[in-house]
Write a structure and sequence with these properties.
Helix content: 10-25%
Number of strands: 9
CATH topology: Pnp Oxidase, Chain A
Distance between the termini: 68 Å
Structural class: alpha+beta
Radius of gyration: 18 Å
Number of domains: 1
Order of helices and strands: EHEEEEEEHEHE
Shape: globular
CATH architecture: Roll
Largest sheet: 7 strands, antiparallel
């Protein structure tokens, strides 16, 4: 009888968002920079989402990385505020000094769809850090690797076309 050795492949990709305590310290500064008329236009990927909490009724202002996936403005997150968009909800987005209004919706996605969207964001120049990911090894992660990541996807539809 031969002994079969089972090896498990370590995860090549894992979630690695910044610690919440750090974000509580940094986000007020990021909000200020993104809305500053001199500094905001210089920051490409970061955006400020403003929306009303569905239960609290409070106005929330959340700095995010806004990615364009297949021509669609997209946010990846695992944070609880994403549930404000279970049903499409109004949102104001400030990016590169421009304020736009629209609706945001939390998409019902399969792991494969999330992996494909994350791969597209990486292919479009996003860094793993900007996606809240840690990638081990020197090879680029595959869609299969990225499909193992539990991220939610929010789509933003702007009222204006451009």
């Amino acid at each position: 009888m031969t002994r079969t050795q089972t090896t498990t492949r370590p995860a090549r990709v894992r979630l690695a968002p910044p610690p919440p305590a750090l974000m509580r310290m940094v986000n007020p500064l990021v909000r200020r920079v993104l809305t500053d008329p001199r500094l905001g236009p210089r920051i490409a990927l970061k955006a400020l989402l403003e929306f009303t909490g569905r239960r609290s009724g409070r106005k929330l202002r959340v700095p995010v990385c806004l990615h364009t996936i297949n021509g669609v403005p997209t946010v990846f997150t695992e944070r609880p505020w994403r549930f404000n968009f279970t049903d499409p909800a109004p949102v104001t987005v400030t990016q590169r000094g421009r304020v736009r209004h629209g609706r945001a919706v939390l998409l019902q996605t399969t792991p494969l769809e999330v992996g494909t969207a994350l791969r597209a964001a990486l292919d479009n120049g996003a860094s793993p850090f900007e996606l809240g990911l840690k990638i081990s090894g020197s090879q680029e992660p595959t869609i299969a690797d990225l499909s193992a990541i539990e991220r939610s996807v929010i789509r933003i539809d702007f009222d204006d076309e451009g």
